[in-house]
Design a protein that fits this description.
- The chain has 172 residues and is mainly α.
- The protein has one domain: Four Helix Bundle (Hemerythrin (Met), subunit A), CATH 1.20.120.
- Helices cover 77% and strands 0% of the residues.
- α4 runs antiparallel to α5.
- It is elongated and about 60 Å long.
- The chain starts with 9 loop residues before the first helix and ends in a 7-residue tail after the last helix.
Length: 172
């Protein structure tokens, strides 16, 4: 089946690919955050954590812009804000049948925002004097964030692709 037969337009396919690329970078960095959280939970020193963050800086597209998971949290906040402000209204305009899907995505954004704020708060408090309980709290917070964010990304990609890929231009 050709792109035309699937009701796909080059512009929409490109926009959808860009969204998936951003989502994949978020997934990759989230994996690195989870690995680092496991090291923190195991008692890694602040120097070790700083070294791992420097290593991440050299190996990831998003991490090259900044060093730590606080930046990752800000990136997710900004990405979701952009979707809320621009992409979701465009989806609603171009396919009103997606109303319930967009409602859920917006609700997910609010819930994920709370989880991101919690991770950021816990990460700011982390130092070598942190107890194992404090470290485990951060690990659990990162695990909760990862679970919710990965579910959200999969749901979003699975439900908006056809509409997005049909766009010949950005829906006015």
């Amino acid at each position: 089946m050709t792109a035309r037969e699937r009701n796909e337009a080059p512009f929409g396919v490109a926009v959808h690919r860009q969204l998936k690329l951003i989502h994949q970078m978020l997934r990759n960095d989230l994996t690195l955050c989870r690995e680092l959280a496991a090291e923190v939970a195991a008692g890694a020193s602040a120097a070790h954590v700083a070294g791992r963050l420097a290593e991440l800086q050299a190996n990831s597209p998003i991490w090259t812009l900044q060093v730590n998971c606080l930046y990752h949290c800000r990136i997710v906040h900004m990405h979701h804000h952009g979707e809320d402000a621009d992409m979701f209204p465009a989806l609603r305009r171009s396919n009103p049948d997606l109303g319930d899907v967009v409602d859920r995505l917006e609700s997910d954004h609010r819930a994920i925002s709370v989880l991101l704020d919690n991770v950021e708060s816990l990460a700011r408090k982390l130092d070598d004097s942190a107890t194992s309980a404090e470290r485990e709290t951060l690990v659990i917070a990162l695990r909760d964030l990862a679970t919710r964010l990965l579910e959200h990304l999969a749901f979003e990609e699975g439900h908006i692709a056809a509409t997005m890929r049909s766009w010949a231009i950005w829906p006015a």
